[in-house]
Amino acid sequence: MELAVLLALLGAARALSTCRSLDLEAARRKRIEAVRGQILSKLRLAAPPGDPPPRPPLPDDVRALYNSTRELLRQRARLRPPEDPDEYYAKELHRFPMEPPGEGEFWGGGGHTR
Ligand SMILES: *[C@@H]1O[C@H](CO)[C@@H](O)[C@H](O)[C@H]1NC(C)=O
């Protein structure tokens, strides 16, 4: 008996949440439509524009300049080693002044321990 009530409640809750997510999705679509309409009206267009007309090909000299620039950049990239991000930023160096260990001290290799 209790189980039946629980199952019924669960079912109702699931139906409610499904309904809610459908509502949210519909609201989202409506909002997108509204924004699209606003953009079109700002542009004084009744409908989204179609594809732009095909562009004429680039003049040969422009194309040659583009090609040579690209080739130059490729050569430079080949000559230069890849940039290491660690090399790009300034580094903080820590310097520890050290004195050579004296006779019989820790590093001194005397064969005895203290
Ligand atoms: C530029 O390079 C393309 C291929 O990358 C080539 O088809 C074209 O003929 C070149 N144009 C000129 C002007 O060098």
Automatic annotation (TrEMBL):
Keyword tags: Glycoprotein, Signal
Signal peptide: 1-15
Residue intervals of the TGF-beta propeptide domain: 17-76
Domain of life: Eukaryota
Pfam families, A to Z: TGFb_propeptide
GO annotation, cellular component aspect: extracellular space
Record InterPro entries: TGF-b_propeptide (IPR001111), TGF-beta (IPR016319)
Protein name: TGF-beta propeptide domain-containing protein
The species this protein was found in: Otus sunia
